[in-house]
Structures are given as C-alpha cells and as structure tokens.
TrEMBL record:
Gene3D superfamilies: P-loop containing nucleotide triphosphate hydrolases. It comes from Piscinibacter terrae. This is ABC transporter ATP-binding protein. The keyword Transmembrane helix applies. Belongs to the ABC transporter superfamily. Macrolide exporter (TC 3.A.1.122) family. The keyword Transmembrane applies. GO terms for molecular function: ATP binding; ATP hydrolysis activity; transmembrane transporter activity.
Amino acid sequence: MKIRTDAVCKEYQLGRSTVHAVRNASITINAGEFVAIKGPSGSGKSTLLHMIGALDQPTSGEIWLGDSKLNDLDDSRLATIRRNEIGFIFQSFNLIPVLSVFGNVELPLRLQRVPAQERKQRVEEMLHAVGLTQRALHKTEELSGGQRQRVAIARALVTRPQVILSDEPTANLDSKTGDEILDLMRRLNQDHQVTLIFATHDHSIVERADRVVSILDGEIIDDRRMGAEPKLMSVG
Ligand SMILES: Nc1ncnc2c1ncn2[C@@H]1O[C@H](COP(=O)(O)OP(=O)(O)OP(=O)(O)O)[C@@H](O)[C@H]1O
C-alpha cells in the first residue's frame, strides 16, 4: 500500500506559544519499502509516525493510505484502518500482562472476529516465526525485553498488515537482541512485502533501511535511498 503525506503540518498550542512539531512534510512511501525516519529527540518523528498511522490528525495537509484520504474519514473508519491495515510496535511494547503470550498475539484476531481454529493456526505460525513457541503459555511479565519485543512483533504481524509502524523498536534492547529482531523484521519485509516505517536513533536500523528520511525541527531535511550507488559508465 502506497503512503503519501502532502504538506503535512502538526501544531500544538502550549499556552500562548505554538509548537510546530511537523512542518510541511511531503513524502511518498511505496509498498514494501523499509524506511527509517531519523532525527534528534523532539524533531517530530513520533508525531509524523502517529499521523501516518491514523492515531493523530494533522493540523493541515493531507495523508493518504492507498486510496483512503485519512483526513476525510470518521473515527470508526480510522479505527478499522488501524485494525486491519497497520501493525504498531512501540518501544514500551504495550502488551497485556494478564494474558499469556498466545493471548496477546491472538487479541487482534479476536477483534477481527477471525474464527477460533484459524486464530490458533495463525498465532502458532507467528510464534514459530519469532521463535517463541516454547513460551506460548507464559505471562509476558515472565519474559525478557527481547522476548517481549518479539511478542509485540508477532501481535503486529498476525493480522497480516500491509504496513508496520514502529517508534524506536530497538530502544529497550541490547544490541545483539536488537540486531536479531531487525533481521527478523527485514525477513518478514522481504518475504511478505510489508512496508516498514521506523522512527529511530539506532544506527543498526539506519544501516538496514532502504531509505533514510532525516527530520530536524519538524522539517524533512534529507530523503535518500540507500544501497548500491549508481555505477559510473566507463568511457573510452
Ligand atoms: N501532545 C503534545 N503537546 C505539546 N507538544 C507536543 C506534544 N507531542 C509532541 N510535542 C512536541 O512536538 C515536538 C516533536 O515531538 P516528537 O515526540 O514528535 O519528537 P521525536 O522526534 O519523536 O522525539 P523523541 O525521539 O524524543 O521521541 C517536540 O517539541 C514535542 O515537545
């Protein structure tokens, strides 16, 4: 699913002063791209990500997810898009402590009213993909940070979303676990053409991304595709 923001601005009113969290951001992200949004703390990464994910509305400008212009949709339609098209992974994981690992990953499928037998099969498949089959019946509070993050990834992917949005997915992980998680997400991105959009400070993410969008003081200051430089033609 193609994502497009057109001259998006987000302003917050703090007393008498206006915070320009995002200024005039125009960006097009193609299906299957892995994009890192990079910038210092307070530069507007999370705000931009939240607007793309239909969690927040821009003050001005347009946001398109595929053929849907988010500005025009009511709350219930936005909720449907969040539930069906987008997987969110946040640094605090947002897992439900009273549920088991299985129960956490199953929850979005329950919300989509997927029948029990299919739920079981899809959850087991996802737990296998993230290497947590042995932990299915554990409570999430019994898991390490890296394992919790893998539960959050499994929960985000089990609905087979077209887009995964993540705010600092590796922030609470040691570098080895962070790298493993990134390799896993990269594989899922390549195998299933899931679009990945990560807000991050992490060099490991920036190195792996297809494209790095740099943001400073709410403004996109650089947008570059990574990978092989175009070959110079040898003449003569
Ligand atoms: N709800 C809000 N009310 C007022 N100001 C806000 C609000 N949310 C964000 N801001 C401000 O908007 C700016 C951008 O914040 P944002 O969280 O998007 O930055 P960020 O790049 O994600 O930072 P970090 O890397 O620290 O998470 C900051 O100046 C922040 O203080």
